[in-house]
Amino acid sequence: MEKDRVHEVVKSGYAEVARQGGGCCGPATTQSTSCCGSTETSSHADTAALIGYSDDEHSGAAAEGNLGLGCGNPTALASQKPGETVVDHGSGAGFDALICAEKLGPEGRFIGVDMTPEMLERARTNAVNAGYARTVEFREGLIEKLPVASESVDVVISNCVINLSPDKGEVFREAYRVLKPGGRLAVSDIVLTRALPPEVATLAAGWVACLSGALTEDDYFGNIRAAGFENIEHTRTPAAPLLTSSMQDPTWKAAVELIGEEQVMKLSDTVFSYAITAEKR
């Protein structure tokens, strides 16, 4: 698909996710009877635990921003320090923002960038309700063209969003641009060990499901290196458990119906969740 069409499809898909609701605590008017007192009953909390978030992270103040999305925990990779500035590529409803805000402290700053107004509205509300209105902000924009000043950021994070971009090279160049010398990149993302079959790679619904836009490892890391990053390190885990747990999730369901569950599971041995760190010299 053309770049503008990819943005349109992804934006529409995640606007629907934001409108459908979700998050551990539910609407503010029903918090007293929500799952916050028992996160074991929350599918979003279960997903967060599966991809590396601690009980405190997915049941605390950040729970309102947890829509069950993501494929890892970039906040655990970023080693944020009090007073630093962090930018999030594709900040969604603000789950990682609220986790980071506590670590950054009153002198730190968190900037979330997202292209979906519905997600931005939820994120801003969540930040205010959690008491982080002064240190957390959300800006509408594309991760290929960040609304952030050059060399103004200590850390760039992203959670399963870069695979949604039609131009990963530009995403990493922008991350490099906004980072200060010595700044850090910390990314969780879906990466492939071999290319997807054409009939899957071209599916619009597959883009929303974080599958059709995924690159192979060589291509993905080639983009990071070409942007100028050094000291690139990664670990990976099979994405099969995440695929299985997400089969009925709204962001996956349309893709699964088109591809077929059998085909999705055949692909699962080529789909991995990567935890990636890199540095700007």
Describe this structure in words.
With about 280 residues, this protein is α/β, with parallel strands linked by helices. Helices cover about 40% and strands about 20% of the residues. The chain has 13 helices and seven strands. The chain has helices at about 5-20, 45-50, 55-60, 75-80, 95-105, 115-130, 170-180, 200, 205-210, 215-225, 240-245, 250-260, 260-265, and strands at about 85-90, 110-115, 135-140, 155-160, 180-190, 230-240, 270-280. The protein has a seven-stranded mixed beta sheet, sandwiched between helices. Strand 1, helix 5 and strand 2 form a beta-alpha-beta unit. Helix 1 (about 5-20) crosses helix 6 and helix 7 (about 170-180) runs parallel beside helix 10 (about 215-225). The radius of gyration is 17 Å and the shape is globular. About 50% of the residues are buried. Residues about 20-40 have low confidence and may be disordered.
Give the biggest sheet. Answer: 7 strands, mixed
Termini gap:
35 Å
- Please count the beta strands (DSSP E, at least 2 residues each): 7
SSE pattern, N- to C-terminal? HHHHEHEHEEHEHHHEHHHE
Shape: globular
How does the helix and strand content classify structurally?
alpha/beta
Helix content: 40-55%
- Strand content is 15-25%
Low-confidence stretches: 22-42
Number of helices: 13
Q: Please state the CA-atom Rg, rounded to the nearest Å.
A: 17 Å
**For the residues shown, what is the average pLDDT?**
83
Strand order in space, largest sheet: 3-2-1-4-5-7-6
